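Demo today. Your pick:
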Amino acid sequence: MRRADLITASFLALLGGVVVFDAVRLGIGWGTDGPQSGFFPFWLGVLMIAACAAIFFQSVRRAPTVPFVTREQFRPVLKVLWPAVALVVLTQWIGLYVAASLYTGFYMRWIGRHTWLAVLAVAILFPLATFFVFEKWFLVPMPKGPLEAWLGQ
């Protein structure tokens, strides 16, 4: 656990440093019309670095006795991770709506053990509703695949 805390705190502090560096480039002062573009990101980056420093030094003082994650704890994480990775990969080839339908149906059946009627209803209606909200009402184009192209979208 200690090593994971140290690595994570270091990485996030470095990320906070990037935010601070770029915020200074944008300007962190107070202009005639209010704060400059980098004012809020600068202070958020400073707070992030301070929090990471506190976590880092707290981890240094802690004895490294407890493992970060056990094999039994990691299995449920992988049960969530692999279908999500599949969703992202499939979106490139079959589009967001079809991939989301497959993901939702698979996840509901595998993890939730819902009935086939519920799985089909949600797996079809949710992406369909999302399509109408984003594509038709808000006019926000989402990644599409061959099915949407076949339907003329």
Notes: DSSP finds six helices and two strands in the chain. The mean pLDDT is 92. Residues 64 and 135 are 51 Å apart (CA to CA). Strands lie at 30-31, 34-35.
